[in-house]
């Protein structure tokens, strides 16, 4: 985590040490939830090891995977965390996971401790927004075929490690359609 934070070239050694002291190691087994729909998110975590998936349930009970979070990134149900309202999303471990967790109070302490932390959180929020916008545009503008081909080029690790049912949901298609796309590309 410290190397990740240093990559922003914002925080002093003292500021990094404060974060290190506040962080608490937590472990999740495959299938465990970081947060469930209807709960209020009270933490942000840095993923040291493993993969989470974020999903929501439609009115007919279908799970829709809309995001994956990998090692060396932060995870949270951000809307719930920021507003302290109930989450409409679930975040679940799809592998065994280890995180460094920060409570909401910890984050507020960091924000209040320096301008550098405020800048870091602003940059992080901006990056999250850009990624979300990019995802929406891809889903609306590209065909399922093109979305899969883009993943082959830009995110090949997803294709190797994400179960097909989550991958098809992430692409906005059925597993059957994903199988047809994969077959047509292989031929």
Put the structure in a nutshell.
The protein has 187 residues and is an alpha+beta fold. The protein has nine helices and eight strands.
Describe what this molecule looks like in 3D:
With 187 residues, the protein is α+β, with helices and mostly antiparallel strands. The chain has a domain at 2-113: Sandwich (Jelly Rolls). 51% of the residues lie in helices and 22% in strands. The protein has helices at residues 2-6, 13-22, 78-83, 104-113, 115-141, 144-154, 156-161, 164-171, 175-186, and strands at residues 24-28, 33-35, 43-49, 52-57, 63-69, 74-75, 90-93, 97-103. It has a four-stranded antiparallel β-sheet with strand order 1-8-3-6. It has a four-stranded antiparallel β-sheet with strand order 2-7-4-5. Strand 4 (52-57) and strand 5 form a beta hairpin. Helix 4 packs across helix 5 (115-141). It starts with a helix and ends with a helix.
Key structural traits:
187 residues; alpha+beta; Jelly Rolls; four-stranded antiparallel β-sheet; 8 strands; 51% helix
List the helices and strands and how they pair.
Elements lengths: L1 H5 L6 H10 L1 E5 L4 E3 L7 E7 L2 E6 L5 E7 L4 E2 L2 H6 L6 E4 L3 E7 H10 L1 H27 L2 H11 L1 H6 L2 H8 L3 H12 L1
Antiparallel strand pairs: 1-8, 2-7, 3-6, 3-8, 4-5, 4-7
Helix pairs in contact: 4-5
| Neighbour order of strands in the largest sheet | 1-8-3-6
Overall 3D geometry? Answer: globular
**Total beta strands:** 8
Using only C-alpha atoms, the radius of gyration works out to 18 Å
Strand content: 15-25%
Structural class: alpha+beta
């Amino acid at each position: 985590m410290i190397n990740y934070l240093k990559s922003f070239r914002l925080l002093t050694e003292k500021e990094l040490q404060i974060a290190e002291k506040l962080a608490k190691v937590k472990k999740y087994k495959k299938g465990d939830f970081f947060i469930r729909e209807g709960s209020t998110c009270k933490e942000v975590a840095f993923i040291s090891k493993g993969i989470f998936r974020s999903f929501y349930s439609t009115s007919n009970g279908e799970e829709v995977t809309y995001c994956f979070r990998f090692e060396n990134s932060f995870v949270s149900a951000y809307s719930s965390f920021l507003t302290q309202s109930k989450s409409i999303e679930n975040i679940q471990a799809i592998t065994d996971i280890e995180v460094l967790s920060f409570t909401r109070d910890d984050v507020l302490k960091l924000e209040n401790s320096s301008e550098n932390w405020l800048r870091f959180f602003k940059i992080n929020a901006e990056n999250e927004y850009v990624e979300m916008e990019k995802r929406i545009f891809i889903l609306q503008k590209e065909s399922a075929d093109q979305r899969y081909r883009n993943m082959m080029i830009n995110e090949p690790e997803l294709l190797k490690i994400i179960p097909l049912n989550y991958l098809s949901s992430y692409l906005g298609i059925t597993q059957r359609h994903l199988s047809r796309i994969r077959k047509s590309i292989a031929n």
